[in-house]
Structures are given as structure tokens and as C-alpha cells.
Write a structure and sequence with these properties.
Layout (H helix, E strand, L loop, with lengths): L1 H16 L8 H5 L3 E9 L14 H8 L6 E9 L2 E9 L4 E9 L4 E7 L6 H12 L2 E4 L3 E8 L2 E9 L2
Antiparallel strand pairs: 1-2, 1-8, 2-3, 3-4, 4-5, 6-7, 7-8
Length: about 160
């Protein structure tokens, strides 16, 4: 009986030794793939935010559906809970490049990316959103960059480009 009691007590202590990791695997989320912008929405909504584009919804969708446009690709090295490195991307007419970092502990995000928007309202918002993004959410298949501007809080929806 004492042996069974000791075994049960040992099994009850097991969860104390199995720590819980509540940080994201930032390397798996960000690197090794190309992310394509699906749309930008107001925080809390899941439909495209249209008023600030300056172009029609149909034209925006047409631009987003062009091959190899509005994409970003992250390269980086993880140190502790932080990953940082280079970011490259595309719009319809421009290549983009810069630096970025993400914090797995607090979902913080920071990027400085440069490129030409060439009077393309969607490209302007794409660049603004990446540069203003302060946090991220997501996993290996879906990435959301959250940013604020004078019009409110927005979420950029990205999917993995196959």
C-alpha cells in the first residue's frame, strides 16, 4: 500500500517538472516562407477596409490577386524570445527591403521597410502597415500584423504563398 501511495505521489508531482512554454515559435511562424497580403481590415472585422484605398474594391482585389505582388519574406536569427533580421517584399511595381524583429513573449513586432509606392494607394497602405505594425498574431499558415494610424487600428491578413 505504501508503495502504491509513493507512486501516486510521484505521478502527482510530475506536472511540476513539466514546464509550460507560452511563447510562440517565431522562427517557424515567420521564416522559411513567403507571406502574401490577403487584405487589410479594421481591428475586429474580417472584411476589407475600403475607405482609405482611394481605389475601388474591385481594383484592390485585382491587384492583390496578381502573382508575386504584396508579398514579404522574413529572414532572421533567434536569440532567446526575440528574432530579428532582414525583410524583403514586393508590390506591383517595387521591391522592398529592410529590417524587422519580433518578440515571442509579448507578440511585439517592429519593421523598417523601404520601397517605392509609385502613387499606388494599396502599396502606400502596405508599406505604412508594415512600418507601423507594433504586434503580430498567427501561426505557420496565417500571419496578422496589427498597426494603428489616424484612422484607427488595423490588421493586415497574410497567408503563405504556395
Amino acid at each position: 500500500m505504501k508503495v502504491i501511495y509513493k507512486i501516486v505521489c510521484l505521478f502527482m508531482l510530475l506536472p511540476l517538472f513539466a514546464g509550460c512554454n507560452d511563447t510562440d515559435d517565431v522562427a517557424a511562424i515567420f521564416t522559411g516562407k513567403t507571406w502574401k497580403l490577403s487584405f487589410i481590415a479594421r481591428e475586429g472585422e474580417t472584411r476589407m477596409y475600403e475607405p482609405f484605398w482611394g481605389i475601388s474594391k474591385e481594383e484592390t482585389i485585382k491587384k492583390l490577386n496578381l502573382a508575386n505582388t504584396y508579398t514579404i519574406k522574413f529572414e532572421g536569427i533567434v536569440e532567446g524570445d526575440v528574432i530579428e533580421g532582414k525583410i524583403n517584399g514586393t508590390t506591383v511595381t517595387s521591391n522592398l527591403s529592410g529590417t524587422w524583429s519580433a518578440n515571442a513573449k509579448n507578440n511585439g513586432f517592429n519593421a523598417t521597410i523601404k520601397g517605392q509606392s509609385d502613387n499606388d494607394k494599396l502599396a502606400e497602405n502596405f508599406l505604412e502597415g508594415i512600418n507601423a505594425a507594433a504586434s503580430y498574431q498567427g501561426d505557420e499558415n496565417n500571419l496578422y500584423l496589427i498597426y494603428k494610424n489616424s484612422k484607427g487600428t488595423f490588421r493586415m491578413f497574410f497567408r503563405v504563398l504556395k
